[in-house]
Structure formats: structure tokens, C-alpha cells
Design brief:
about 180 residues; alpha+beta
Length: about 180
């Protein structure tokens, strides 16, 4: 009988701890209400321009194909390859992408004949190094994280500055500091 009571108490204790953990995760965050972003974060915008200029100094023409993306635009992109025609290009629904918070951009290269390309082996500046990886190196030096380093869904054109914030925190109103 005592063993049965001890097991019951242990089960109740474990269930209580589990319930407290779930509550902490699901309870409303203590962040203040802030309006959703409508443009790139100022530091990301500044670093985007630096990336383009530094790549140009190496003879590489970078094209920004996307930066800030609205929730509606993200949802439309998410539908590609699912309920809309095309291939799957993202696993993030609206509000689940750093683009939606002005913290990400996508890039491509412009070839010497003026074509926008996503060829990761292209060497337009003729230095025997892939221009794509030269751009990634510059971006990382500027503080961007590269989607090509992700272990799951590799997103080679994607660069982001998350400022140490998760999507969960951003969804709940936490924002990176503004540039001074």
C-alpha cells in the first residue's frame, strides 16, 4: 500500500513539474506590445549596402532578390509547391521567417552578361574562387548568418542577422536594438 502511495505521489510530482514547464513555455510573454516591422532593420539595411559594396570591390555584382517580406507575402511563398504551382521554396509560414521581422535578405549574382544567376560555382571575377562563396564570406564578416550552414533545409541565398533572438521571441514582440 505504501509503495502504491509513493508511486502515486511521484506521478503527481512529475506531472506537476511537466505542467509548470508547459505553462512557462505557453504563457504570454512579458514583452511589451510593439507594432510589426514594415522594413529592414536599420543595421541589416546598412550591412546589406556594405555587402554589395565590398563584393563590388572584388568584381562581384550582388543582387538582393528579397529582403523584408510581409506576413502575406510569406504565406504566398509558403503555398508554392503545396496549394500553389511551383516548387517548395520555404518551410516558414507567415510570421515564422526572419524576413518578416526585417532581419533577413536573399541574394543572387549578376553575371558579366547581365543575367541574374544562382550558380554557386560561377567565377565571374576570374580569381579561381566561386563568387557565391566569396559573398558568403563577406556576409559572415559583416555579422550575417548563412542559410547554407543550416543542417536541415539548406537555404543558400539566405542571409540573416538574428541578434540572438529566436522566432518565438520575435513573434511575442521582442525586437533587436535600433542603431544609434
Amino acid at each position: 500500500m505504501l509503495k502504491r502511495i509513493n508511486r502515486l505521489l511521484l506521478t503527481i510530482l512529475i506531472a506537476s513539474i511537466f505542467a509548470m514547464i508547459i505553462y512557462q513555455y505557453l504563457k504570454p510573454a512579458d514583452f511589451e506590445e510593439v507594432p510589426p516591422p514594415t522594413a529592414l532593420h536599420p543595421l541589416v539595411a546598412e550591412k546589406k549596402e556594405e555587402l554589395i559594396a565590398l563584393a563590388a570591390d572584388k568584381g562581384i555584382n550582388v543582387v538582393i532578390t528579397q529582403d523584408f517580406r510581409s506576413i502575406e507575402e510569406q504565406d504566398a511563398l509558403y503555398e508554392k509547391g503545396r496549394t500553389a504551382e511551383g516548387n517548395i521554396v520555404t518551410h516558414a509560414k507567415g510570421g515564422e521567417s526572419y524576413h518578416n521581422f526585417g532581419l533577413a535578405l536573399d541574394f543572387a549574382l549578376m553575371s558579366v552578361d547581365g543575367q541574374v544567376i544562382w550558380d554557386m560555382n560561377y567565377d565571374g571575377n576570374g580569381n579561381s574562387r566561386a563568387d557565391w562563396m566569396e559573398v558568403v564570406e563577406i556576409a559572415k564578416d559583416l555579422g550575417f548568418k548563412w542559410g547554407g550552414d543550416w543542417t536541415q533545409f539548406k537555404d543558400y541565398p539566405h542571409l540573416q542577422m538574428d541578434f540572438g533572438l529566436s522566432i518565438w521571441e520575435l513573434q511575442r514582440g521582442k525586437r533587436p536594438p535600433e542603431v544609434e
